[in-house]
């Protein structure tokens, strides 16, 4: 007996448009034009013989029929996505991890050889999208993000806590204006981390200077770099003094490439979190990676 299934592409356009309540935002996710999304939805409506959306000048809302249809459509795409992911997991040992660029450059990569040696059966594929994680759109299995830990619908586990402090090349501890006290920063270039976080959580020099009791330095002056590991490289090269997260400079401090001119740290309320869909907790690759991250986070730098 023939199954009366709707065409897949229009069905996908309907699900994405309903999720965003916008043909324009749906088009961005699907990498097509808004008119193409509208046409696909119209095709689905004609196939079903019902109107799924109420279209007004600046709003798009589901009709009663659309609201009734949407849960089953979402469930169907979820089942397809899970089945595809499970099949890929059986066919390939690749674990796709999406993390911020500096997390990769300054924390993960220096430790990755230990993961490779401990788990040669898993191939890591690292990407650095670094926006809000979207597991229904992006091709990765687990993400690490910096922020408050508010990721609705996802499993969230703390990864690394953070504090920030100034660092510089050892050369700046000598010379005409050696760094002895926070007030001495007036004689040096401030290096800024220009990375932008949607929740405004990136620490900045003005906050640290207030914390250190310094009020006569213009915290807006200096050089700015993004992503964060570039400001660390600039400090290593002696361009000035960088305000950086402690986790990113552990190895540079241990190797003597950087020094802490002052023993003053600014606590940060935000942290790094591992996030992934709850059903992936049973994926042995994901579980293995999480266990390894936990162990590495608890191990002093080597």
TrEMBL record:
Belongs to the LysR transcriptional regulatory family. Transmembrane segments: none annotated. SUPFAM superfamilies: Periplasmic binding protein-like II (SSF53850), Winged helix' DNA-binding domain (SSF46785). Residues 6-63 form the HTH lysR-type domain. It comes from the Bacteria. This is LysR family transcriptional regulator. Coiled coil: none annotated. It holds the Pfam family HTH_1. Keywords: DNA-binding, Transcription, Transcription regulation. One of its GO terms (biological process) is DNA-templated transcription. NCBIfam families: PRK11139.1.
């Amino acid at each position: 007996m023939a199954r009366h299934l709707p065409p897949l592409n229009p069905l996908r356009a309907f699900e994405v448009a309903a999720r965003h309540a916008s043909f324009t935002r749906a088009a961005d996710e699907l990498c097509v034009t808004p008119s193409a999304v509208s046409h696909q939805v119209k095709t689905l409506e004609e196939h079903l013989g019902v109107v799924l959306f109420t279209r007004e000048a600046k709003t798009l809302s589901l009709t009663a029929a659309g609201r009734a249809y949407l849960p089953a459509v979402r469930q169907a795409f979820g089942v397809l996505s899970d089945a595809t992911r499970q099949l890929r997991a059986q066919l390939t040992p690749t674990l796709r991890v999406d993390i911020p660029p500096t997390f990769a450059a300054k924390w993960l990569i220096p430790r990755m050889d230990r993961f490779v040696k401990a788990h040669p059966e898993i191939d890591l594929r690292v990407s650095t999208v670094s926006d809000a994680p979207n597991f229904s759109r992006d091709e990765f299995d687990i993400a690490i993000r910096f922020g408050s830990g508010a990721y609705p619908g996802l499993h969230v586990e703390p990864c690394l806590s953070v504090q920030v402090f100034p660092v510089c090349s050892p050369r700046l501890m000598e010379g005409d204006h050696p760094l002895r006290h926070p007030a001495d920063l007036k004689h040096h270039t401030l290096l800024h981390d220009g990375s932008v976080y949607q929740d405004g959580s990136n620490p900045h020099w003005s906050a640290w200077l207030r914390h250190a009791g310094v009020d006569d330095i213009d915290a807006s002056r200096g050089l700015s770099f993004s992503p964060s590991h570039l400001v660390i490289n600039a400090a290593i090269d002696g361009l000035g003094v960088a305000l950086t997260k402690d986790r990113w400079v552990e190895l540079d401090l241990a190797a003597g490439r950087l020094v802490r001119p002052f023993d003053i740290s600014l606590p940060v309320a935000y942290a790094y979190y591992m996030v992934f869909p709850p059903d992936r907790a049973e994926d042995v690759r994901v579980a293995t990676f999480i266990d390894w991250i936990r162990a590495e986070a608890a191990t002093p730098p080597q």
